[in-house]
Amino acid sequence: xxxxxxxxxxxxxxxxxxxxxxxxxxxxxxxxxxxxxxxxxxxxxxxxxxxxxxxxxxxxxxxxxxxxxxxxxxxxxxxxxxxxxxxxxxxxxxxxxxxxxxxxxxxxxxxxxxxxxxxxxxxxxxxxxxxxxxxxxxxxxxxxxxxxxxxxxxxxxxxxxxxxxxxxxxxxxxxxxxxxxxxxxxxxxxxxxxxxxxxxxxxxxxxxxxxxxxxxxxxxxxxxxxxxxxxxxxxxxxxxxxxxxxxxxxxxxxxxxxxxxxxxxxxxxxxxxxxxxxxxxxxxxxxxxxxxxxxxxxxxxxxxxxxxxxxxxxxxxxxxxxxxxxxxxxxxxxxxxxxxxxxxxxxxxxxxxxxxxxxxxxxxxxxxxxxxxxxxxxxxxxxxxxxxxxxxxxxxxxxxxxxxxxxxxxxxxxxxxxxxxxxxxxxxxxxxxxxxxxxxxxxxxxxxxxxxxxxxxxxxxxxxxxxxxxxxxxxxxxxxxxxxxxxxxxxxxxxxxxxxxxxxxxxxxxxxxxxxxxxxxxxxxxxxxxxxxxxxxx
Length: 538
Fold this sequence. Notes:
The protein is an alpha+beta fold. 36% of the residues lie in helices and 19% in strands. The strands form five sheets. The protein has a seven-stranded antiparallel β-sheet with strand order 1-20-19-15-14-9-8. A hairpin with a 4-residue loop joins strand 12 and strand 13. Helix 5 packs antiparallel against helix 8 and helix 12 crosses helix 13. The longest helix is centred in the middle third of the chain and has 21 residues. It is globular. It starts with 18 loop residues before the first strand and ends with a strand.
């Protein structure tokens, strides 16, 4: 296999052809947001500026999946190397684990104040802009503010998710402090329909303040005061003191070599390591190159084994009982591979010591590329909206464990196991480009499948995203899409996999890809068929 990777060779027809560009490209699940990022590039901004503007716009245009009060992660190729940014926040200092466990037993609640951790997204935008951006930060907020203040037509898939949330929340949100969600997102006592013009004027005011203060107001100013006051008034744990001491962390990306390519992820507390572990295991399968019964079986088993380890060990790295290096050991991967046989297994945790998210990708003509992801989790997050601000607080703490024996047991100042993960592909010491697949626990499974589709099956970006997906959901249970090969589904069932076909393709993740040709600088993009997305190219 050659040292360089030429994505222009992967240009044969797919269900939808890839998009090419030269000066810049933005891929995300909302066309208006992608265009907002492209406009920033045309104004002289770089890929980092475009990513920030797109991310801010997405909090307005697709609030069913992310918001101002969520977390974010980024992988940024600039200045000849890949940088990692972890902008996930910790549990508040006021959290008392024993009280939470006594009240809720073995499972963290999904909504309300208990799962609310410090939001990191606004801080991510600000530090990315300060360190690597070209345009003024305030300029990057303007597209989002414009859409929030003057309205935007709602996209179809977003409308579906909005209606689902409204129907669910109408049934379960009985406490008075949830009323601000309905005031903000369903002021007419109904979810907006596709094509309906939506206004989020509170979002506009807040984004303007974030832009003017470079997010300082959110963490150490007037917006922080409003968050603190709402929390105190309604029995929450989050305080201004938690916000004041939060700063995103620049981290070194973790990676593994897969058949001559380098696959990068953010290190724990994110679970991107799951995709790398699964690739390490599957790399031991030497008959790659075709999608057939055996290759699907091997992929599924590899993912199951990787996932149970990740769910057992991954948390805030300060609290992990094993290291990322141990989990990514090729020797350990071979031990896990040796557990795979003809029949489906019920995966168990190994011992390596002995061996409701949005995703976007941007690129510019200077060679900068960004893989960025942010989320409120489970759609609209905790269901709590700070009055008159549009700040919907996320519920990322739902991923904490309430088992004191687990590495991921909830604790004050501790970051939880995190599902949102950006990814990046390289070849040798050269960048290929950013990619990601959003969707909770589907994300590392989507990353794994995209890499296999690209490296083993030589699919172009659009084909790699369009290919029918499978998802492990626990035990021996596997979900597949309707266009997954019927014969393979039947044979996997005979091997002991508990197969089911899902009719809701949104549950199978939504991804974006940009590859860059090293010699010509041509950008090649693909966007998710399961979303409203587009590739905006220049």
